[in-house]
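Re: your question about 5-oxoprolinase subunit A

S., sorry for the slow reply, the queue was backed up all week. Below is exactly what I fed in.
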Amino acid sequence: MAIIDINADLGEGFGIWELGDDLALLDVITSANVACGFHAGDPLIMRRVCAAAVERGVTIGAQVSYRDLPGFGRREMDVAAPELTAEILYQLAALDGIARTEGGRVAYVKPHGALYNRVVRDPVQAGAVADAVRAYDPALPLLTLPGSALHDVADGLEVVAECFADRAYTPSGALVSRREPGAVVHDADAVTRRAVRMAVDGTVAAVDGTEVALRARSICVHGDTPGAVTLARSVRSALSDAGVALEAFA
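Result:
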């Protein structure tokens, strides 16, 4: 029987601005990627999300990013490796400290946005992220794409592969850039079918129709897209109906 985790990005509001329905998504997912304040989120939001996740038994992950609040962490930046390592440590320690005051802890790390895509292909930036996790707690898994450079630089760290039910893929297995049309799949039926195929068959159709293999332990559903909660519920229900066990990886 296939076993899969469902993760989503949460805590991505800031101050009076809200993005997504965190509480509703926490009733659906098994792992929460919580923004740590560099691309979104603030201390109050972080605390609220951590408390709600602990209450529901949802695993907490640190969603670390480039320091880019105006660009929501989606603008690629050239950050020296030592500085990037320190910035990842800063975010990880902040969220973990807040999570522990609420009776939980950070159980894994997932890069966000431009940093996520950068570490897939850049071993230097990937190494900087891995160094931060290794320095803070080498038992923490890293969540990334199956072909990410993080796998090559992990050096003893656990790296967990994930896939995206609502993102388009290139034939090489990379995510289509959000600058390109069709990068995000909005059709609920299509997203649900893709999620089941990913979990059961370990494949997805790329934008050119070719089949891409992507054995993954976790499926990401985005929380900042229209109808995100309804879509997440549909994905969870379809996975259960297909006989897939839903279980956090950390």
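Residues 48 and 60 are 12 Å apart (CA to CA). The chain has a mean pLDDT of 96.

Happy to talk it through on Thursday.
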